[in-house]
Amino acid sequence: MIFNRHVTDRFAPYLDGSLDSRMRDSVEAHLAKCAECRSGIDQVRKVKAALQEIPLFEAPESLWTAIEASQHGIGKAQSATFPNWRYAVAALIVFVALLGYWRHSRQLIVRWEVVALDGLPIAGGEPIVALESVPTGEWIETDARSRARIRVGEIGSVELEPNTRVRLMASGVGGHRLALRSGGISAKISAPPRLFIVDAPAGTAVDLGCEYRIHCDRYGTGTLSVSQGWVSLEWLRTESLVPAGASCRMRAGLGPGTPWFEDAPTQFAQALERFDFDPNSALDAIETILTYSRTRDTLTLWHLLSRVRASDRPRVYHRIVKLAGTPAGIDRETILNLDRHALARWKDELAWTW
Amino acid sequence: MQGRNRLADPSKIEMYRLVARISFALAVILAVARAARAEDFAIQIASPVAAQNYQMKRSTFVFRTTGCAAAVPPEVMATAEGRVTGQRRSLPLKVVVAPATGVYGVFREWPEEGVWIVNVTARCASTIAGALVATDGKSFIRESSVFLTHKATEAEIEAALKGTPRK
């Protein structure tokens, strides 16, 4: 019955790592079941991270002299409602907080831990021998014989494959952002959605709590493959939701294609590539996609609902219904009109067949 | 003679027949309703992505129940049933409740060696549903999983273990 009691009083020692293993297990078990406490501990974690980023400064000698002088004069100033030294301390606190906020917002102090796994990766033009602390804004590069690992705050890590070029864009309580110029990276992230983002030339991969690999050439042509959780691959007004076991291609200037499960029939995968990136054969491709689709390929068909011409939409809809049915409350017209809520609800239901 | 006369009374015989017919019809309706209810209450399994929550992503599979109209949520439990170097083993599993209502996750708590399935049992009021979920090294195997309208028997578990592909 431990789950009936919230564990708010143990957030701080849990995050500090000062709980014994039994108590830590108990807190983790509770967090796994209690959304309210998870939200609470996330907030405490963010505040803790923000406080850690505020720098400490030595107070100037003149300030202490002034405070001491004020204290000596307290007896004379008994009638005052608010002593002067308190103003000084308050001003000091405000000053330090503002300075910390300014430095944080400028990201001058944010650094990333980068480890060389093989060879000599380069960070900011200098080779990484073992572990380096690299400031935001720098590039990390690997050649044909080197690999590196970047620590992403407290939420995970990213491995750079050989011949990869990545820029450290932003890191803080609001999230972490990398830019992949070319090559391949594998990310392992364990965090609530949208805290880790990778900008590739033909799509932005937004982590929805997952593990994935993304690779591309310098023009942006590449693929995203997800092994756990979900990734949202976004480009202008296009969004491809890619779950574990699925991939999504990207093309320079065209953005992401439609996600598909990697075990799909070859004819299906080839037709999908034609549909996504060859406008001349898109019509023929639809027929092949529908013919070869299996139940779990409703992932692809669901995305196609909003990507095919309006005249083709009913065929896609009926194929999904034939493969997986429709849940109560979802009707043909709302789907064909691309009602966002109905589509989202249908996607969540279809996910039970993937 | 009097008793025979009473039985021979045509109006009473007709009444008995009517009562018998009504009773039979009620029994049929109750049986059908019970069967229909039992069919409705079922376990549905899926890949962890169906839970729509990052904390479930490392689970072997997630499941939910359908067709439970009871006021209280169904009770669920799971055990890992395996055969390791010829010996049968059974391990109780922790069923993790996902933030989404009525979704549960099963995480791997059984050893790597041997063949293992997960025996899931759910109870809604007096109705029971079961599932024997086949697993491989990383995930569950939907095609080899079995869904039941009762708690799995030892014979069904044995059969499921034999039907589970080896890694």
Report on the structure:
The complex is a heterodimer of chains A (354) and B (167). Chain A is of the alpha+beta class and 354 residues long. Chain A folds into four domains: 46 residues, no CATH class; 48 residues; 148 residues, Jelly Rolls (Sandwich), CATH 2.60.120.1440; 96 residues, no CATH class. In chain A, 37% of the residues lie in helices and 29% in strands. Chain A has eleven helices and 16 strands. Chain A has a 16-stranded mixed β-sheet that branches. In chain A, strand 10 and strand 11 form a beta hairpin. In chain A, helix 4 packs antiparallel against helix 5. Chain A is globular and about 90 Å long. The model of chain B has no long low-confidence stretch (mean pLDDT 86). Chain B folds into two domains: 36 residues; 122 residues, Sandwich (Immunoglobulin-like). In chain B, strands 4-3-7-8-9 form a five-stranded antiparallel β-sheet, with helices on one face. Chain B has a four-stranded antiparallel β-sheet with strand order 1-2-6-5. The termini of chain B are far apart. Chain B is α+β, with helices and mostly antiparallel strands and 167 residues long. Chains A and B meet through strand 11 and strand 12 of A and loops of B.
Concise description?
The complex is a heterodimer of chains A (354) and B (167). Chain A has 354 residues and is an alpha+beta fold.
